[in-house]
Amino acid sequence: xxxxxxxxxxxxxxxxxxxxxxxxxxxxxxxxxxxxxxxxxxxxxxxxxxxxxxxxxxxxxxxxxxxxxxxxxxxxxxxxxxxxxxxxxxxxxxxxxxxxxxxxxxxxxxxxxxxxxxxxxxxxxxxxxxxxxxxxxxxxxxxxxxxxxxxxxxxxxxxxxxxxxxxxxxxxxxxxxxxxxxxxxxxxxxxxxxxxxxxxxxxxxxxxxxxxxxxxxxxxxxxxxxxxxxxxxxxxxxxxxxxxxxxxxxxxxxxxxxxxxxxxxxxxxxxxxxxxxxxxxxxxxxxxxxxxxxx
Length: 295
What we know:
Helix content is 31%, strand content 24%. The protein has 295 residues and is an alpha/beta fold. It folds into 2 domains: 1-30; 33-292, Purple Acid Phosphatase, chain A, domain 2 (4-Layer Sandwich).
């Protein structure tokens, strides 16, 4: 009986030890990295393509699980011209395959087809606004889960009076409400948008034609209110081609990720080097660094 008891204790110990080591191994497997690129402004000219070659090589060295792109992948389709715009989308779609990783794209203002008054196409065209983006890349808002983290990509762009505005439409808000209802509240979330939800850009560089009134995304507060009971850890943003990290109430980092194209597009940069962000995540912990691909 004593021998059987010792055997049982040993078996229990080995079982617990095995569970412990399996848990550690599982935790190690859950560690991952991704890169956040924004404002690539890719087009088939020597300056943009040579820079993109460097980005591809740099991302290859990092070997992330996936690439997250924050909008303005191409430059640009707002003035329409079906043939030219199709060429730009096709070029980016082909070139982005060179990463050799899944690429998750967010729609930017430069992907809004034929929205300007001078466009030869108009709102009756099937590719109008975000139609061409959807044809190449699918939905303009979506969600995916990766190794314990939830990633949500939103479309914060709409069109009014032949110009783009920052706004999240009602259908998308309802989708987001339902999506968050099914996500456990303890799950860490990373949200990606193109136009910043929170930024100090216009405080540092006020526009010459007057101070902007209200947030750049009109219903920003309504969007963020939906996350109030969730672990919104990062909001990754683009559009203004500069780098900042705003830690709001020690809860959410609103990070505007610089730009691959620089500022203004491919003509140098005012607000730091051209580059992208590299994130490392393990369990509930996350860190990131700015990567200058030109070094």
